[in-house]
Design goal:
alpha/beta, Arc Repressor Mutant, subunit A, Glutaredoxin, 5-stranded mixed β-sheet, 7 helices, 32% helix, binds FE2/S2 (inorganic) cluster
Length: 222
């Protein structure tokens, strides 16, 4: 997602919680003196997680002041990477991959299923604040297309019906199975592995026999 408009204000301000302040300190300690700006992405991620999935101007300015750099430098980073949201998102932030492999395997149908089920368009948040949908470019799980990312997890081998069922499960507060929704093993072919099926079983490990002490060796007879 690429957002170019300036983020919405958050009048109550922003500051790291004590726990996140400790995390930020640990992160910054990884970089040499005078190179604190290298922690920009990590601290923005921390701020976004604390702030319900998006970065307000106050959060961006807080990170800038924490790192002692100009706010515009941090805003440039926040507005460049699609992993950062400059407007509020739903508790479940659905990113539908729409790049060629997912598109060929039906990503348009997944997006439509989300819109129909949730009654909102792209980049909109449902009334109850639970869901928002965006379309993104390749998320690197092309072998199991079509797929979506919801918060930190991937859900693969989707159909529109499965997508709608997943939304129902999330809305009911249930756990949704992460990964392939068809039971595919990692990125193996549909129906299971088709190659390297006749490999010999791994050799049995035999531990070496314990060595017998040699009485004539220096130090052995003392
Ligand atoms: S094209 Fe969708 S994960 Fe790569």
């Amino acid at each position: 997602m690429k957002i170019t408009s300036y983020p919405e204000p958050q009048p109550e301000g922003f500051a790291f919680t004590a726990e996140n302040a400790a995390r930020a300190k640990t992160i910054c300690a990884r970089y040499p003196e005078g190179r604190k700006a290298s922690a920009t992405i990590a601290l923005l991620d921390l701020a976004q997680r604390q702030n319900g999935g998006w970065l307000s101007p106050e959060a961006i300015e807080y990170v800038a002041s924490y790192l002692d750099v100009a706010s515009i430098r941090v805003f440039e980073v926040a507005s460049f990477y699609s992993m950062f949201n400059l407007k509020p998102v739903g508790k479940y932030f659905i990113q539908v991959c729409r790049t060629t492999p997912c598109w060929l395997r039906g990503s348009d149908g997944i997006t439509e299923a989300c819109k129909k089920k949730l009654g909102v368009g792209l980049k909109q948040v449902t009334e109850d604040g639970l869901f928002s949908i965006v379309e993104v470019e390749c998320l690197g799980a092309c072998a199991n297309a079509p797929m979506v990312q919801i918060n930190d997890h991937y859900y693969e081998d989707l159909t529109p019906e499965r997508m709608e069922a997943m939304i129902d499960e999330l809305r009911a507060g249930g756990e949704v199975k992460v990964g392939s929704q068809t039971g595919r093993l990692a990125s193996a072919p549909e129906g299971g592995p088709a190659t390297l099926l006749d490999l010999p079983p791994p050799a049995k490990f035999t531990p070496p026999a314990p060595s017998t002490p040699n009485p004539s060796a220096p130090g052995e007879s003392d």
